[in-house]
Amino acid sequence: MVREIILQYKRVEKIYQKKPLVEIDGKGVERVVNAVKSVICGIGVDLMPESNYVGDSLRTGYELIPVDDLYINKYLSARNMKSNLTQMTETTQLSRLEHYIWWLQKNKRVSYVFKKEGRELLFAWYQPKQIRGVNIVVDGWFIASNNCNALDALYAITKYYSIIDRLFSGYYFIIVIHRDNDFMNRLTSRTNFSEIDEKDNMFSIADECFPSANTINFRYYQRYIE
Amino acid sequence: MTNKQKYNHVFMETFGISEGDLAELEYNAIQAWDSVGHMGLMAALEDTFDIMLDMEEIIDFSSYKVGIETLEKHNIHF
Fold first, then answer.
1. Which of A68, A97, A92, A98 minimizes the C-alpha distance to A80?
2. Which residue in B27, B33, B59, B60 has the most chain A C-beta atoms within 10 A of its own C-beta, making it the best mutation to test that interface?
3. For all residues of chain A together, what is the average pLDDT?
4. Are A151 and B27 an interchain contact pair (Cβ–Cβ within 8 Å)?
5. At residue A55, does pLDDT exceed 70?
6. Which residue of A7, A37, A52, A61 is most buried, as measured by CB atoms within 10 A?
């Protein structure tokens, strides 16, 4: 973790520049930042992938906002919600330490938060990949609070799919959905996804995209983006 | 069977409720009309009336009453 803080110092600094909810002497964060800065002076850093959201019109009261490092904790809290874990390929809660390391070191996702009247409803992410010469985009989403009802989720997901469609023409859009998630499995046919059979050539690619998924618990879907 | 009777029948069959419960029925007001129930209701209405609801209509289908307005746009008259 310390290594990641050092390597990703500029990102971490921005997180800590966020005004604390409760100020004690107002200098605690500054002291930490200065201490880290003094250790790592001169080391290069990588920034989070930039979102390339091209803008879209949303209904009044709704917002789709790129997720930056300031969302590091909210993203984890949402991701660890029981109602989300039961639908995910990774079903165990992540500790803060694991999450911070993943976020700073491995996270290649472009994520957005979908809000309604200022309240976070759900997080959605996508990640383009190239596997054996095939251009792929994968995505996932999870609710940010139990205030997110299915109609809001439906609206957010369909909007999000339309954004992905605009950004990734010529890509195969691959998703996995838990077999118990009847809502999403029913939605796939309406959004022109088709299930990937295990004998299909695309299956091994989909399997590589979601290494923690399995056919016992998940259905694999694809859609070619024209 | 009139369109109104067909419409009511779909709701009653899908959610296991009686006709008297329909008039003020809204999404999430009963346990059966949850996310899965919603998609089941949409599929049942499409089958019954031989229509295809678009995503915007599915998202906006928030009550029994709104549903009537939605179906009227598909020339299903009540």
1. A92
2. B59
3. 85
4. yes
5. no
6. A7
